[in-house]
Amino acid sequence: MHPNPAFRHDDRQLFETLIAEIGFGMVFCTTPDGPRVAHVPLHSTGDGAVQFHLARGNALTKHLEGQTALAVVNGPDGYVSARWYADQKRVPTWNYVALELEGRVRRMDGDGLLAQVEAVTAREEARVLGGKPWTMDKLPDSHRRGLLAAIVGFELEISAWRPTFKLSQNAPAEERERVIAGLELQGARAIADLMRKLVP
Asked: Could you tell me which SUPFAM superfamilies the record lists for this protein (predicted)?
């Protein structure tokens, strides 16, 4: 989390939207073998937890249960050129959105894992253009069981939400407008859009 309090946010619904819209993140944990990270689809339960699954052979899988871990969701970002500012004392920076979720991890049972995989698949299939959404029941039972046996489901109960919404809040409104225009020109429309929507 960025140390500048100007870049904090406290809208829990916004955090939930970020998790749902991005749907993917990283889980970090210290293990006896050193720090490890896994890149995972994330599913928010809506009541203060995020779920994810790992391949059974992942370096984190055997260490996560009962540990405190950190899940990170990275939102839009964009380089901010100093040439966009009228104030010549400003320097380049990077605007970005990130959400850190810290909490204790528990291993899920088979039913919970299946529900998680189905929820993630349904969310993502709804975004795929054309055709009928794919569902798990398209797989033969034996194949589905084999695939589910190869992964392990986890739930991280969130004890700390640490958001960073670095959107040039520390710059005057006219400078922010110049940054927004510059980002849009560079094709970084998502971060520019968030600057418009979230910074008064």
From this structure: FMN-binding split barrel
